[in-house]
Structure formats: structure tokens, C-alpha cells
Amino acid sequence: MCGIVGFTGKTQAAGFLLDGLERLEYRGYDSAGIAVLDGGKLETVKTTERIKNLKDKTENGKKVKGTIGIGHTRWATHGAPSHENAHPHTSQNRKFAVVHNGIIENYIALREELKAEGVDFVSETDTEVIPQLIEKYYDGDFFSAVAKAVSRLEGSYALGILCADCPDTLIAVKNFSPLIIGLSKDAGFIASDVTAIVSHTKDILYMEDGDMAVLTPEGVKLYDSKGNEISRKPSVINWDVAAAQKSGYDHFMMKEIMEQPGAVARTIESRIRGREIVFDGISLDGEKLKNTERIEIVACGSAYHAGMVGKYLFEELLRIPTEVDYASEFRYRNPIINEGTLTVIISQSGETADTLAALREAKRRGSHVLSIVNVVGSSIANASDDVLYTWAGPEIAVATTKGYSTQLSVLYLLAVWAARILRPEQSARTEKLFDELVKLPELIEKVILSEPKIKEMAKRCGDPESLFFIGRNVDYAVSLEASLKLKEISYIHSEAYAAGELKHGTISLIEEGRTVIALACYEELFEKLLSNIKEVKARGAQVIACAVEGHTEIAKEAENVIYIPKTDPLLLASLEVIPFQIYAYYVALYKGCDIDKPRNLAKSVTVE
Ligand code: F6R
Fold first, then answer.
1. 488 lines ligand 1 (CB under 6 A)
2. Which of 248, 411, 416, 525 is the most buried (most CB within 10 A)?
3. For ligand 1, is residue 521 a contact (CB within 6 Å)?
């Protein structure tokens, strides 16, 4: 959570900082601030509102002079979203300013130590100890003061630091929180992610844990955790700024929903040569696969829901026992993981703190870790044995759509690839799945065409107190994701239930007028789901159903039916989720919710 930016160059800094922060606002939007160094003086401007307010206050940055600065958009952890707690934080003598993403775990001890030495604190944050420590160690050498201060910190941190005595030097430090450097001829940039700087440069240096960088307009010097200068090859970004803009849509979420056919096509087609599936550069091979006794899928939120679909896929196609775990649970139990386990980590951002910790735990126990990640160069990608990128392009809306869909696509590819190696006797089944898989982008496109109908349905939905999603098998996995989409952006309480579980308690909540959304696309269990629909109807529920084309009998039971095209049952999730992404979007729109930035949420959860 939190987004940070920094700039040193020959032009005014504030404009870049504010634009960059606006692009990072999805990472947190409780408060924001910038600090700019002008003539040896640090000027800070903060707000407890959105970046827009910071822009208004500074006339889009024009009022803040200076060619070097840092900025921050906050997702509050330590202390309420107040002016005092907003970053940048400065040292007591205002010699240093710091922006921080992450958590300093030993900040209480450091704070007490500094207080005992007479340092006054103005905020409740963990971050404020950092500028104070740097000031304590400063004897005229900015670099060594930062290095000493950083050696005292425990926890996660991406830092941008200014010193009033060094008019063009920006120092950046990374440890377990994302930070990248943008390189250009006469300027240096730092940011939490590429979207903030892609309009200025496509040459990116991905910082690694323990790295410290010194940026001036003349160039960047990179140091390892021992202070040795190192060199690393920059990467070139292959997408442009349009990918991170709304391109005429009112919200990123709708843009990203509409991008799904293209994103899924990119994910799948880039791995297909003829009928072969080729994963370039991974070390997982037939030998390792044959020694795999169990698969453990670990993720959070929607990525976990994609993982649930993975369980059905792997167990059905590979006949390997597969577990799906929440990363936050996995990391704090005693999981049975060893060399015979393949751990599949799923994360759009590649920075989720719990998922990263789970990954490290799986590796420590000897498991081979393969990650499915969207953000190139992210912490999870770097820490894994193998990475399969989802190639969804930047996902800006907090609620994931194309991220989830492309995760599913990678899982399908992985399952077919592994089934060809492990289960040649089932090749007819596997090849049938492959044939359907390549048609997926076209079928998603078809589902998207039902947008006007779904919009109408959402209009009628209003603002119910609560509603239920039910489904069986893959339908159940999708109902979890559909329910999460609705609640996170529309704030309507909703629950997803395995339809067979309803009568074990939850059915007591079904009463006259309650909306039940029944996912009935898994054809083998269609009749069972129809019975569940009848049960809730008998108790007064109104039913919205989703079924595969041709199952028109469902219209006798449900007030509204959405049909999706027929496909392989293992691929259903990719089609079935789309109507409910659109449904959640319009329900939230009609309620007047902040769709791209729902309350209390942030795009990348880098704290546990
Ligand atoms: C929901 C959503 C979250 C994320 C979860 C994991 O729309 O986006 O539930 O799926 O926070 O994030 P990643 O995939 O970045 O690890």
C-alpha cells in the first residue's frame, strides 16, 4: 500500500510528482503530500483529501518551485489519515524529508530511543523515526547517514529521501516494498510502480531488496546492502502511457473489463506455437513434474478465487491432490510442504505481503515455487523459482478484473501443458480442452455483448441490504469472486455459498424478497442447482441465474437469466465471471460509489 514518487532533474519537480501520485492513487488515498527542495529549503504541501486537492492548492504544482522532490499517497496503517500523519515526514531541524511505503516493525523502540535524546515527534507514524534517525547520524555525509539509519530499521520499506544540504541528490532505498528507478538523459525518477513514470521514460531499473540508489540529474549510482557500487541492466517497458489511462471510459474498472478479450488472447497466444504450449525460461520440467506429489496454491482475495478454479483443473486433469490456501493462513500454520510439493503462487501485483511471506515459507521447506504474476520485476516474481507472467498490462482499478481473468488463463495453460506430460493416456480429454482454450478470447467477447442487459438488471437491483450467490463446483469458485466484486465496490453485503451447503444453516436467512444469484453453468450439476433454486424460491427469494445457452428451462424458475456460450466445463469461470463484474460495476455506479477507489481498500496490500 501507499505510493511513492521522486524526481531530480533540471525542470520543475512538482508537476511530475503530482501527476505520478495521481497514477499511484489506487495504492492508497487517505492523504497525500509532496516535499520539494528549493534553494536549500524544504517545502512540504499536504492534504487529507485526494491528489486533486493537492493539485488545486499548488496550481498543478506551479506554485512549488524546485527541481528535486518526493511525493506520497497514503493508505493509513500507523495513525489516522491526518495532516500530521501524511507524508513526507521531516526531521526535527527540517534537514531531511522522507516518503515511505512499508512498515517499520521496531519503530516504537527507535522512537523511545530518539525521544530520550530530546527529539520531538509530531506524528503517530512509524515512518517519522526514519528522518529523525538520519538527522541523528548526519555529519555532512548524506549517503552514510542514510546507510546508518537504514541499518537500524526492521521491517519493510521503500524510501525516497531528500537532504536540504544536497540540492540535486535524491536517495532511494528498497527492502521488501516495491521501488523502481526511471532513467533518462538529464533526470532521475523513482516510483512504486511503472505507471507513475512511463510517460517520461521506458528505461527502468528494478531495485532489489537491500539496494540503495543515489540519483542526480547526471545519473544513478546503485549500491548493494554492504555499500558496494553495483551495476544492473535496465529493462525496457513495452507498453505505453495509453495503457494506464482511461481512454474514454468513465472508470478504469470498465475499461479493464472491456480489455479482457485482448488481455486473455495475449496471455494465451504468446505461449502457443502450433499446438505446443511453450513456457520460455522456466526450470520446471517433465522430471520435476513427475516427482510432484501435491500442488499447493497460495494467494489472497481474487487471486485465491482463481486458485480455486486451479484446484478443479489440476485435480481433474493431472490427478494430483491440490490444496488452495489463503496466504495469510498458510504462513502461520505448519503446512505439510516438501520437495514433493509444487507451490503455485498467484498475485496480480506481485507485492502482496502475505503471499510473499508464504512463498518464502514454501521455499524454506524445499518446495519448487512457480508464480503467476502480472507485474514484471515485482518482489514475488523475483523471489520465485519460476514465473509465468499474465501479461494483462497495468491494472489500475482496485477491484481486479483482467488480472483475475489472465490468472485463470495461465492456470489453464499450465494444466494442459502438465497434463500432456503426466497423463498421455488422457490426451483426448486434454486436446479437447486445448481446442476450447484457444477460442476463449472470442467467447469472452461474446459475453461482453450482454452488457446492456446486465446494466438493466443492475438498475433494478437498487440497494438491497444483503444478497446471496450460490453455485456448485466451478460455479461455486466463481460465485466467491462475483460476490467479492459486488461487495468491494458497491458496499452491499453479499455472501457466496456452495449451493449444497445452504440447507445446513444459511437458508434461514432466505426470506421474501431476498435476492439470490444462482450460478448454474456447470452442466453436470445443473439439475442439482435447479433444485437449490426451487428451495430458495419456495421461501420467497428473487432469483437471478446464469446458465449455459440452451438451458432455457431455468427461465421458469428465475426472474432474470444471463446466458453464456457453451465451453469446456473447466473453462467456465472465464465466461461466467464477466457478467458479474459488469453487474457489480453498474450496481456500484447507480449507488454513486467511488468505483475505482472503493473505501478502505488499496490495490496492492504490502502490509500483512
Ligand atoms: C479484489 C482484489 C483483491 C486482490 C488481493 C490479492 O478485487 O483485487 O482481493 O486479488 O488483494 O492481490 P494480488 O493479486 O496483487 O496479490
1. yes
2. 411
3. no
Establish whether domains 246-438 and 449-591 are of one fold: yes
Query: Of 137-146, 158-167, 406-415, 592-601, which range is least confident?
Result: 592-601
CATH superfamily for domain 449-591 = Glucose-6-phosphate isomerase like protein; domain 1 (3.40.50.10490)
Evaluate: CB of 347 within 6 angstroms of ligand 1: yes
Q: Using a 6 Å cutoff on CB, does residue 303 contact ligand 1? A: yes
Q: Hey, what CATH class is 246-438 in?
A: alpha beta
**Could you tell me the pLDDT band of residue 39, with boundaries at 50, 70 and 90?**
confident
Contact at 8 Å (CB) between 304 and 328?
Answer: no
Tens digit of pLDDT for each residue in 218-265?
Answer: 999 999 988 999 999 999 987 777 777 888 899 999 999 999 999 999
Q: Which listed residue (136, 485, 597, 603) is catalytic? A: 603
Burial state string for 244-280 with b = 16 or more CB within 10 A and e = fewer than 16: bbeeeeebbbbbbbbbbbebbbbbbeebeeeeebeee
**400 CB less than 6 Å from ligand 1?**
yes
Instruction: Using DSSP bridges, classify how beta strands 3-8 and 68-74 pair: parallel, antiparallel or unpaired.
Output: antiparallel
If you measure from the C-alpha of residue 301 to the centroid of ligand 1, how many angstroms do you get, rounded to a whole number?
A: 5
Based on the residue annotation, tell me whether 591 is a catalytic residue of this protein. Answer: no
Concerning whether 290 is annotated as a catalytic residue, the answer is no
Task: Indicate the pairing of strand 155-163 with strand 96-104.
Answer: antiparallel
Q: Is 605 in the pocket of ligand 1 (CB under 6 A)?
A: yes
Q: What are phi and psi of 125, to 5 degrees?
A: -80, 160
Distance of CA 302 from the midpoint of ligand 1 (Å) = 5
pLDDT at 562: 96
Tell me the per-residue pLDDT of 348-395, one tens digit each, with 9 for 90 and over: 999 999 999 999 999 999 999 999 999 988 889 999 999 999 999 999
Q: Where are the domains of the chain?
A: 3-242, 246-438, 449-591
State phi, psi for 153 to the nearest 5 degrees: -90, 140
- State the pLDDT at residue 311: 98
Cβ atoms of 442 and 268 closer than 8 Å: no
* Ramachandran angles phi, psi of 386, nearest 5°: -140, 150
Average pLDDT over the chain, rounded to an integer = 94
Residue whose CB lies within 8 A of the most ligand 1 atoms, among 325, 352, 400, for a mutation test: 400
CATH topology of domain 3-242: Glutamine Phosphoribosylpyrophosphate, subunit 1, domain 1 (3.60.20)
Q: Mean pLDDT lowest for which of 23-37, 254-268, 471-485?
A: 23-37
Which of 2, 163, 300, 521 is catalytic? The answer is 2
Q: How far is the CA of 400 from the centre of ligand 1 (A)?
A: 7
